[in-house]
């Protein structure tokens, strides 16, 4: 039986549904620029940085933009995104996620966030989890976004747990790859549920309890 001492959660699309807000904000920018963008393209943006996401979106653009213009576009998208985040509250944290986190904590499992987002701490505040996790590592602290394992390795280091004793929970293919490259087992949710590289394929968040207590192999 595998014994995990800690869990590192991705944020957007795992703890809360900010992945839907990322889509809406990118869609607004893409429409303004006249660039085709849909949910399938959006799935390629899960887990990767803001600037890398923009480069993927601009693959469908007929125009070539300077770095300065691209930074302005990324900033514009972030403003649209922040307008959506402002409306978030603890009501945006599902009972399933909150109850599961509480149970995991109660049974002594260390809990961390490993997110590529520079807005992660703000989102955690909005949904009432500002001081909840044992460690939070976000896009402001890393040099390389997922699929590089940097964010998860730093989170595990802050928890004081080796990667082989930590489980990573992800909704992004890039995040599952980052976990595996860092020596972690991964649980895939949502878009990443079907990933062949995930050890566990979750339909519901509370399945994590059985994994941690050893009731599920
Ligand atoms: C990740 C999202 O969590 O954060 C990506 O899955 C996003 O889609 C990335 O691009 C960066 O987010 P932000 O908030 O710094 O623009
Ligand atoms: Mg995600």
From TrEMBL:
EC number: 5.4.2.6
Alphabetic keyword roster: Carbohydrate metabolism, Isomerase, Magnesium, Metal-binding, Phosphoprotein
UniProt-annotated binding residues for substrate: 10-12, 26, 45-50, 53, 77, 115-119, 146
Pfam families recorded: Hydrolase
GO terms classed as biological process: carbohydrate metabolic process
Cofactor binding remark: Binds 2 magnesium ions per subunit.
Protein name: Beta-phosphoglucomutase
């Amino acid at each position: 039986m595998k014994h995990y001492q800690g869990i590192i959660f991705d944020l957007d699309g795992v703890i809360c549904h900010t992945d839907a807000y990322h889509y809406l904000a990118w869609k607004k920018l893409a429409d303004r620029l006249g660039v085709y963008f849909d949910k399938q393209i959006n799935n390629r943006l899960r887990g990767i940085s803001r600037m890398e996401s923009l480069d993927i979106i601009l693959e469908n653009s007929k125009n070539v933009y300077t770095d300065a213009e691209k930074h302005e576009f990324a900033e514009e998208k972030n403003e649209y995104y922040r307008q959506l985040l402002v409306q978030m509250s603890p009501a945006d944290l599902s009972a399933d996620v909150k109850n599961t986190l509480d149970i995991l904590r109660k049974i002594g499992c260390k809990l961390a966030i490993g997110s590529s987002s520079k807005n992660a701490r703000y989102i955690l505040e909005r949904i009432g989890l500002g001081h909840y996790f044992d460690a939070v590592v976000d896009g402001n602290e890393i040099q390389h976004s997922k699929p590089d394992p940097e964010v998860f390795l730093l989170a595990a280091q802050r928890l004081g747990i080796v990667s082989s004793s930590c489980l990573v929970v992800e909704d992004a293919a890039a995040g599952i790859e980052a976990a595996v490259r860092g020596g972690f087992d991964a649980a895939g949710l949502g878009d990443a549920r079907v990933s062949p590289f995930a050890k566990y394929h979750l339909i519901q968040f509370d399945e994590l309890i059985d994994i941690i207590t050893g009731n599920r192999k």
